[in-house]
Amino acid sequence: MKIKAAEFIMSNSNVTKAPKDRLPEYAFIGRSNVGKSSLINMLMERKDLAKISGKPGKTQLINHFKINNEWFLVDLPGYGYAQISKKKRTIFQYFIENYFKEREQLVCTFVLIDSRHDPQKIDLEFMQFLGENQIPFCIVFTKADKLGSSKLNKQITSYKKKLLNTWETLPMTFLTSSSTGLGRKEFLDFIDGVNKDVAKDFK
Ligand code: GDP
């Protein structure tokens, strides 16, 4: 897929206010600092695209981008901010939860995981939530360039093995690096394929 247009549409905290265009939608989420903005910029070949949603006040919102006039890329708030008070955290989870439960055109969620880390409770709980709500997701391992290839392979294999303790089958996974561009083609080909598969439902 060639990225011909990547346009910021809106930010909001209420799924009912999200864009009405009937286009397939892909959400990006992960712990803060996982490399989400870098990945979005790398995929879109835009230096500053995800900066729009990274501006003060917007990191806690649902940010919609329209890509090639064909699909939406949704940049969701990073979870696991230690500094968010309990009260704020509840509100945060509530509107994100609503987004996932109510956004009908959401076709796939990309859960970003830092390649260097072992499974963390917050990520596993989030995947559990997606599973329980039958929301399709893929795992995207980020920052692959930070480990040597044998350590990287070992780490990914071990991560998947641990997931199989609770999951019967593994979701699709991608290995990416925003520094080297690793995984870009595979990732965009996947979205292209899904867009084609779901086209008839979006007529
Ligand atoms: P976000 O908070 O999830 O949006 O994370 P950012 O994209 O802002 O990245 C957090 C930090 O990790 C920044 O210092 C990035 O430069 C760095 N980073 C992100 N992706 C990569 C990557 O693929 N490789 C390397 N080496 N560093 C990365």
UniProtKB/TrEMBL annotation:
Domain EngB-type G: 22-197
Presence of keyword Cell division: yes
UniProt cross-references to Gene3D superfamilies, sorted A to Z: P-loop containing nucleotide triphosphate hydrolases (3.40.50.300)
Any GO BP: division septum assembly
Cofactor: Mg(2+)
Record carries keyword Cytoplasm: no
UniProt cross-references to InterPro entries, sorted A to Z: G_ENGB_dom, GTP-bd, GTP-bd_ribosome_bio_YsxC, P-loop_NTPase
Assigned keywords, A-Z: Cell cycle, Cell division, GTP-binding, Magnesium, Metal-binding, Nucleotide-binding, Septation
GO molecular function ontology, one term from the record: GTP binding
Protein function: Necessary for normal cell division and for the maintenance of normal septation.
Assigned protein family: Belongs to the TRAFAC class TrmE-Era-EngA-EngB-Septin-like GTPase superfamily. EngB GTPase family.
Protein name from the UniProt record: Probable GTP-binding protein EngB
Highest classification ranks of the organism: Bacteria, Pseudomonadati, Bacteroidota, Flavobacteriia, Flavobacteriales
